[in-house]
Design a protein that fits this description.
The chain is built from 15 helices and 4 strands. The protein is an alpha/beta fold. The chain folds into 2 domains: 6-46 and 175-370, no CATH class; 52-152, abc type-2 transporter like fold. It has a 4-stranded mixed beta sheet with strand order 2-1-3-4, sandwiched between helices. The longest helix has 30 residues, at 220-249.
Protein backbone atom coordinates (compact mmCIF):
# COMPACT_ATOMS: atom_id res chain seq x y z
CA UNK A 1 0.00 0.00 0.00
CA UNK A 2 1.36 3.40 -1.00
CA UNK A 3 2.15 5.63 1.96
CA UNK A 4 0.18 8.83 2.34
CA UNK A 5 2.10 12.06 1.85
CA UNK A 6 1.19 15.45 3.31
CA UNK A 7 3.13 17.11 0.48
CA UNK A 8 1.09 15.40 -2.23
CA UNK A 9 -2.12 16.13 -0.34
CA UNK A 10 -1.23 19.82 -0.08
CA UNK A 11 -0.33 19.88 -3.79
CA UNK A 12 -3.76 18.45 -4.64
CA UNK A 13 -5.47 21.01 -2.41
CA UNK A 14 -3.50 23.86 -3.97
CA UNK A 15 -4.31 22.63 -7.48
CA UNK A 16 -8.03 22.43 -6.63
CA UNK A 17 -8.01 25.92 -5.13
CA UNK A 18 -6.42 27.30 -8.33
CA UNK A 19 -9.26 25.75 -10.34
CA UNK A 20 -11.85 27.30 -7.99
CA UNK A 21 -10.22 30.74 -7.93
CA UNK A 22 -10.19 30.89 -11.74
CA UNK A 23 -13.85 29.95 -11.99
CA UNK A 24 -15.85 33.09 -11.20
CA UNK A 25 -19.15 31.24 -11.31
CA UNK A 26 -18.01 28.82 -8.63
CA UNK A 27 -16.73 31.69 -6.49
CA UNK A 28 -20.02 33.54 -6.84
CA UNK A 29 -21.93 30.39 -5.96
CA UNK A 30 -19.68 29.79 -2.97
CA UNK A 31 -19.71 33.25 -1.39
CA UNK A 32 -22.60 35.29 -2.82
CA UNK A 33 -25.38 32.70 -3.04
CA UNK A 34 -25.42 31.82 0.71
CA UNK A 35 -25.88 35.44 1.79
CA UNK A 36 -28.57 36.04 -0.85
CA UNK A 37 -30.41 32.83 0.04
CA UNK A 38 -30.42 33.61 3.76
CA UNK A 39 -31.83 37.09 3.19
CA UNK A 40 -34.43 35.93 0.66
CA UNK A 41 -35.62 32.85 2.53
CA UNK A 42 -35.38 34.62 5.88
CA UNK A 43 -37.98 37.12 4.68
CA UNK A 44 -40.02 34.78 2.49
CA UNK A 45 -40.34 31.80 4.86
CA UNK A 46 -42.22 33.16 7.82
CA UNK A 47 -44.87 31.70 10.07
CA UNK A 48 -45.55 35.06 11.70
CA UNK A 49 -49.10 36.06 10.76
CA UNK A 50 -49.79 39.77 11.12
CA UNK A 51 -52.05 42.38 9.54
CA UNK A 52 -54.79 39.86 8.83
CA UNK A 53 -57.42 41.59 6.72
CA UNK A 54 -60.59 41.92 8.78
CA UNK A 55 -64.06 43.27 8.04
CA UNK A 56 -66.52 44.39 10.72
CA UNK A 57 -70.29 44.04 10.77
CA UNK A 58 -71.28 46.07 13.84
CA UNK A 59 -75.00 45.88 14.60
CA UNK A 60 -74.63 47.36 18.08
CA UNK A 61 -72.97 50.73 17.27
CA UNK A 62 -72.08 51.48 20.88
CA UNK A 63 -68.94 52.47 22.72
CA UNK A 64 -68.46 48.89 23.84
CA UNK A 65 -68.63 47.47 20.32
CA UNK A 66 -66.23 50.12 19.05
CA UNK A 67 -63.84 49.28 21.90
CA UNK A 68 -63.91 45.63 20.87
CA UNK A 69 -63.07 46.51 17.26
CA UNK A 70 -60.27 48.77 18.51
CA UNK A 71 -58.92 45.89 20.61
CA UNK A 72 -58.62 43.81 17.45
CA UNK A 73 -57.04 46.64 15.47
CA UNK A 74 -54.53 47.72 18.12
CA UNK A 75 -53.30 44.16 18.67
CA UNK A 76 -51.23 44.42 15.49
CA UNK A 77 -52.55 41.13 14.19
CA UNK A 78 -55.63 42.47 12.43
CA UNK A 79 -56.16 45.26 9.94
CA UNK A 80 -59.71 46.56 9.51
CA UNK A 81 -60.18 46.88 5.76
CA UNK A 82 -63.98 47.13 5.50
CA UNK A 83 -67.03 47.99 7.58
CA UNK A 84 -70.20 46.23 6.49
CA UNK A 85 -73.85 47.16 6.76
CA UNK A 86 -75.55 43.89 5.81
CA UNK A 87 -75.12 40.11 6.06
CA UNK A 88 -75.19 39.81 2.28
CA UNK A 89 -71.85 41.58 2.04
CA UNK A 90 -70.03 38.90 4.02
CA UNK A 91 -69.92 36.04 1.50
CA UNK A 92 -68.61 38.06 -1.49
CA UNK A 93 -65.90 39.58 0.73
CA UNK A 94 -64.61 36.21 1.90
CA UNK A 95 -64.97 34.68 -1.57
CA UNK A 96 -62.78 37.37 -3.18
CA UNK A 97 -60.22 37.12 -0.39
CA UNK A 98 -60.69 40.79 0.43
CA UNK A 99 -60.95 39.78 4.08
CA UNK A 100 -59.73 36.74 5.99
CA UNK A 101 -62.00 37.29 8.98
CA UNK A 102 -65.36 39.00 9.45
CA UNK A 103 -66.24 40.10 12.97
CA UNK A 104 -70.01 40.15 13.52
CA UNK A 105 -71.20 42.03 16.64
CA UNK A 106 -74.88 41.41 17.53
CA UNK A 107 -77.25 44.29 18.41
CA UNK A 108 -77.56 43.23 22.08
CA UNK A 109 -73.81 43.11 22.69
CA UNK A 110 -73.49 46.09 25.04
CA UNK A 111 -76.79 45.25 26.80
CA UNK A 112 -75.54 41.77 27.64
CA UNK A 113 -72.29 43.18 28.98
CA UNK A 114 -74.18 45.63 31.18
CA UNK A 115 -76.35 42.81 32.54
CA UNK A 116 -73.28 40.65 33.26
CA UNK A 117 -74.58 38.03 30.83
CA UNK A 118 -72.72 36.18 28.05
CA UNK A 119 -72.18 38.48 25.08
CA UNK A 120 -71.20 36.27 22.14
CA UNK A 121 -69.71 37.71 18.96
CA UNK A 122 -69.16 35.84 15.72
CA UNK A 123 -65.91 35.46 13.77
CA UNK A 124 -66.34 34.18 10.21
CA UNK A 125 -62.97 32.95 8.91
CA UNK A 126 -61.79 32.08 5.41
CA UNK A 127 -60.51 28.50 5.73
CA UNK A 128 -58.85 28.41 2.30
CA UNK A 129 -55.49 28.82 4.04
CA UNK A 130 -55.84 26.46 7.00
CA UNK A 131 -52.70 27.70 8.76
CA UNK A 132 -53.67 31.36 8.65
CA UNK A 133 -57.27 30.51 9.55
CA UNK A 134 -56.31 28.58 12.69
CA UNK A 135 -53.90 31.31 13.78
CA UNK A 136 -56.53 34.00 13.17
CA UNK A 137 -59.05 32.05 15.28
CA UNK A 138 -56.57 31.75 18.14
CA UNK A 139 -55.78 35.46 17.98
CA UNK A 140 -59.48 36.37 17.91
CA UNK A 141 -60.27 34.14 20.89
CA UNK A 142 -57.41 35.58 22.93
CA UNK A 143 -58.38 39.19 22.14
CA UNK A 144 -62.05 38.54 22.90
CA UNK A 145 -61.18 36.82 26.20
CA UNK A 146 -58.96 39.70 27.27
CA UNK A 147 -61.60 42.26 26.32
CA UNK A 148 -64.27 40.28 28.19
CA UNK A 149 -62.26 40.25 31.43
CA UNK A 150 -61.61 43.98 31.28
CA UNK A 151 -65.21 44.76 30.35
CA UNK A 152 -66.76 42.70 33.15
CA UNK A 153 -64.37 43.90 35.84
CA UNK A 154 -64.31 47.50 34.68
CA UNK A 155 -64.81 49.75 37.64
CA UNK A 156 -64.69 46.84 40.12
CA UNK A 157 -62.05 46.86 42.86
CA UNK A 158 -61.88 43.06 43.00
CA UNK A 159 -58.79 41.49 41.48
CA UNK A 160 -59.02 38.81 38.84
CA UNK A 161 -59.21 35.54 40.80
CA UNK A 162 -57.01 33.58 38.38
CA UNK A 163 -54.58 34.84 35.79
CA UNK A 164 -52.27 32.69 33.70
CA UNK A 165 -48.95 34.25 32.71
CA UNK A 166 -46.99 32.68 29.86
CA UNK A 167 -43.28 33.05 29.43
CA UNK A 168 -41.48 31.89 26.31
CA UNK A 169 -37.90 30.73 26.64
CA UNK A 170 -35.15 30.97 24.00
CA UNK A 171 -37.30 32.77 21.39
CA UNK A 172 -39.07 35.34 23.54
CA UNK A 173 -40.70 37.25 20.68
CA UNK A 174 -41.74 34.05 18.84
CA UNK A 175 -40.03 35.32 15.69
CA UNK A 176 -40.01 32.88 12.80
CA UNK A 177 -36.65 34.23 11.64
CA UNK A 178 -35.01 33.04 14.87
CA UNK A 179 -36.04 29.50 13.94
CA UNK A 180 -35.70 29.70 10.16
CA UNK A 181 -32.32 31.44 9.74
CA UNK A 182 -30.23 28.94 11.78
CA UNK A 183 -32.01 26.12 9.99
CA UNK A 184 -31.20 27.69 6.63
CA UNK A 185 -27.52 27.40 7.51
CA UNK A 186 -27.84 23.62 7.34
CA UNK A 187 -29.98 23.54 4.22
CA UNK A 188 -27.85 26.01 2.25
CA UNK A 189 -24.57 24.36 3.21
CA UNK A 190 -25.91 20.90 2.37
CA UNK A 191 -26.98 22.00 -1.10
CA UNK A 192 -23.93 24.13 -1.93
CA UNK A 193 -21.34 21.73 -0.53
CA UNK A 194 -22.71 18.77 -2.45
CA UNK A 195 -23.28 20.87 -5.58
CA UNK A 196 -19.79 22.40 -5.69
CA UNK A 197 -17.93 19.16 -5.03
CA UNK A 198 -20.22 17.24 -7.41
CA UNK A 199 -18.58 19.11 -10.27
CA UNK A 200 -14.94 18.49 -9.40
CA UNK A 201 -14.41 14.86 -10.58
CA UNK A 202 -16.92 15.15 -13.41
CA UNK A 203 -15.13 18.27 -14.65
CA UNK A 204 -11.83 16.37 -14.71
CA UNK A 205 -13.40 13.63 -16.81
CA UNK A 206 -14.94 16.08 -19.27
CA UNK A 207 -11.69 18.03 -19.65
CA UNK A 208 -9.61 14.89 -20.09
CA UNK A 209 -7.35 15.51 -17.09
CA UNK A 210 -8.39 12.38 -15.19
CA UNK A 211 -5.96 10.22 -17.14
CA UNK A 212 -3.10 12.57 -16.22
CA UNK A 213 -4.11 12.36 -12.57
CA UNK A 214 -4.27 8.57 -12.77
CA UNK A 215 -0.68 8.46 -14.04
CA UNK A 216 0.65 10.28 -10.96
CA UNK A 217 1.75 8.44 -7.78
CA UNK A 218 -0.92 10.20 -5.73
CA UNK A 219 -3.08 7.99 -3.50
CA UNK A 220 -6.86 8.11 -3.99
CA UNK A 221 -7.32 9.20 -0.37
CA UNK A 222 -4.93 12.09 -1.01
CA UNK A 223 -7.00 13.09 -4.03
CA UNK A 224 -10.25 13.06 -2.05
CA UNK A 225 -8.79 14.92 0.94
CA UNK A 226 -6.97 17.39 -1.31
CA UNK A 227 -10.15 18.20 -3.18
CA UNK A 228 -12.15 18.51 0.04
CA UNK A 229 -9.82 20.92 1.85
CA UNK A 230 -10.48 24.05 -0.28
CA UNK A 231 -14.24 23.47 -0.15
CA UNK A 232 -14.03 22.88 3.59
CA UNK A 233 -12.39 26.29 3.96
CA UNK A 234 -15.09 27.84 1.78
CA UNK A 235 -17.72 26.14 3.92
CA UNK A 236 -16.29 27.63 7.11
CA UNK A 237 -16.36 31.11 5.55
CA UNK A 238 -19.99 30.57 4.49
CA UNK A 239 -20.97 29.41 7.99
CA UNK A 240 -19.53 32.61 9.46
CA UNK A 241 -21.16 34.66 6.68
CA UNK A 242 -24.61 33.18 7.33
CA UNK A 243 -24.25 33.68 11.09
CA UNK A 244 -23.22 37.34 10.61
CA UNK A 245 -26.03 38.04 8.12
CA UNK A 246 -28.54 36.39 10.43
CA UNK A 247 -27.36 38.47 13.37
CA UNK A 248 -27.25 41.79 11.52
CA UNK A 249 -30.29 41.52 9.24
CA UNK A 250 -32.63 39.41 11.39
CA UNK A 251 -31.18 39.99 14.89
CA UNK A 252 -30.92 36.25 15.51
CA UNK A 253 -29.27 35.72 18.92
CA UNK A 254 -26.14 33.61 19.28
CA UNK A 255 -25.84 32.17 22.79
CA UNK A 256 -23.64 29.11 22.31
CA UNK A 257 -20.03 28.21 21.68
CA UNK A 258 -18.47 29.26 18.34
CA UNK A 259 -15.98 26.41 18.66
CA UNK A 260 -18.71 23.79 19.06
CA UNK A 261 -20.55 25.31 16.09
CA UNK A 262 -17.43 25.01 13.92
CA UNK A 263 -16.78 21.42 15.00
CA UNK A 264 -20.32 20.34 14.16
CA UNK A 265 -20.16 22.34 10.93
CA UNK A 266 -16.90 20.60 9.97
CA UNK A 267 -18.47 17.17 10.42
CA UNK A 268 -21.53 18.20 8.43
CA UNK A 269 -19.47 19.76 5.62
CA UNK A 270 -17.19 16.72 5.31
CA UNK A 271 -20.21 14.46 4.92
CA UNK A 272 -21.95 16.73 2.41
CA UNK A 273 -18.79 17.20 0.34
CA UNK A 274 -18.03 13.49 0.43
CA UNK A 275 -21.53 12.88 -0.92
CA UNK A 276 -20.83 15.40 -3.69
CA UNK A 277 -17.59 13.69 -4.71
CA UNK A 278 -19.34 10.32 -4.68
CA UNK A 279 -21.97 11.70 -7.05
CA UNK A 280 -19.29 13.32 -9.22
CA UNK A 281 -17.19 10.16 -9.51
CA UNK A 282 -20.26 8.07 -10.30
CA UNK A 283 -21.91 10.41 -12.83
CA UNK A 284 -18.78 11.54 -14.79
CA UNK A 285 -20.91 14.34 -16.28
CA UNK A 286 -21.20 17.84 -14.83
CA UNK A 287 -24.83 18.16 -15.94
CA UNK A 288 -25.86 14.79 -14.51
CA UNK A 289 -23.85 15.38 -11.33
CA UNK A 290 -25.56 18.72 -10.79
CA UNK A 291 -29.01 17.20 -11.22
CA UNK A 292 -28.27 14.31 -8.87
CA UNK A 293 -26.78 16.64 -6.26
CA UNK A 294 -29.87 18.86 -6.29
CA UNK A 295 -32.30 15.94 -6.08
CA UNK A 296 -30.44 14.23 -3.24
CA UNK A 297 -29.99 17.38 -1.14
CA UNK A 298 -32.63 20.03 -1.79
CA UNK A 299 -35.88 18.15 -1.22
CA UNK A 300 -34.75 16.06 1.80
CA UNK A 301 -33.03 19.06 3.43
CA UNK A 302 -36.11 21.22 2.96
CA UNK A 303 -38.99 18.84 3.64
CA UNK A 304 -37.63 16.13 5.94
CA UNK A 305 -35.17 18.01 8.12
CA UNK A 306 -37.49 19.93 10.43
CA UNK A 307 -36.65 23.24 8.75
CA UNK A 308 -40.24 24.11 7.84
CA UNK A 309 -42.39 21.29 9.16
CA UNK A 310 -42.53 19.67 12.58
CA UNK A 311 -41.20 16.13 12.27
CA UNK A 312 -43.37 14.89 15.15
CA UNK A 313 -46.48 15.80 13.16
CA UNK A 314 -45.47 13.68 10.17
CA UNK A 315 -46.53 10.06 9.57
CA UNK A 316 -44.29 7.48 11.22
CA UNK A 317 -42.93 6.34 7.86
CA UNK A 318 -41.66 9.83 7.03
CA UNK A 319 -40.26 10.21 10.54
CA UNK A 320 -38.20 7.07 10.00
CA UNK A 321 -37.03 8.27 6.59
CA UNK A 322 -36.00 11.61 8.12
CA UNK A 323 -33.49 9.75 10.31
CA UNK A 324 -31.43 9.33 7.12
CA UNK A 325 -31.44 13.08 6.36
CA UNK A 326 -28.18 14.62 7.70
CA UNK A 327 -29.60 18.15 7.73
CA UNK A 328 -32.03 17.03 10.44
CA UNK A 329 -29.20 16.61 12.94
CA UNK A 330 -27.34 19.77 11.98
CA UNK A 331 -30.50 21.91 12.12
CA UNK A 332 -31.26 20.67 15.64
CA UNK A 333 -27.67 21.33 16.67
CA UNK A 334 -27.49 24.81 15.14
CA UNK A 335 -30.79 25.91 16.70
CA UNK A 336 -29.64 24.60 20.06
CA UNK A 337 -26.33 26.45 19.78
CA UNK A 338 -27.86 29.72 18.55
CA UNK A 339 -31.01 29.98 20.65
CA UNK A 340 -30.39 27.83 23.74
CA UNK A 341 -26.63 28.05 24.12
CA UNK A 342 -26.34 24.29 24.73
CA UNK A 343 -23.29 22.14 24.05
CA UNK A 344 -22.24 18.56 23.52
CA UNK A 345 -23.83 17.45 26.81
CA UNK A 346 -27.25 18.08 25.23
CA UNK A 347 -26.45 17.68 21.53
CA UNK A 348 -24.30 14.57 21.69
CA UNK A 349 -26.90 12.59 19.73
CA UNK A 350 -26.83 15.10 16.88
CA UNK A 351 -23.02 15.16 16.99
CA UNK A 352 -22.95 11.37 16.75
CA UNK A 353 -25.31 11.47 13.77
CA UNK A 354 -23.02 13.92 11.96
CA UNK A 355 -19.93 11.81 12.76
CA UNK A 356 -21.66 8.86 11.11
CA UNK A 357 -22.62 11.09 8.17
CA UNK A 358 -19.05 12.40 7.75
CA UNK A 359 -17.64 8.86 7.89
CA UNK A 360 -20.20 7.56 5.40
CA UNK A 361 -19.63 10.50 3.05
CA UNK A 362 -15.87 9.97 2.98
CA UNK A 363 -16.24 6.22 2.61
CA UNK A 364 -18.60 6.60 -0.35
CA UNK A 365 -16.27 9.12 -2.01
CA UNK A 366 -13.18 6.90 -1.62
CA UNK A 367 -15.06 3.79 -2.76
CA UNK A 368 -16.40 5.49 -5.90
CA UNK A 369 -13.01 7.01 -6.72
CA UNK A 370 -11.27 3.67 -6.26
CA UNK A 371 -12.66 2.62 -9.62
CA UNK A 372 -10.82 5.44 -11.36
CA UNK A 373 -7.41 5.53 -9.66
CA UNK A 374 -5.61 2.45 -8.42
Amino acid sequence: MRRLSARRLWAMARKEWLHISRDRRSLAMAFVVPAVMVIMFGYIISFDVKNIRMAVLDRDHTTQSRDLVEAFRSSGYFQVTARLDDDRQVAPLLTRGAARLVLVIPPDFSANLAARQPAPVQALVDGGDANTASIAINYAQAIAATYSVHAVLKGQPLPIPLRAESRVWYNEDLKSSNMIVPGLMATIMMILSALLTALTIARAWERGTMEQLAATPVHRLEVIAGKLLPYLGIGFVDIILVAVVGGIVFAVPFRGSPIFLMVTAMLFLIGAQGLGIFISATAKSQFLATQLAMISTFLPSTLLSGLMFDLDSMPKVLQLISLLVPARYFITAVRGIFLKGVGVDVLWGQALGMIIFATAGLALAVHAFKKEIA
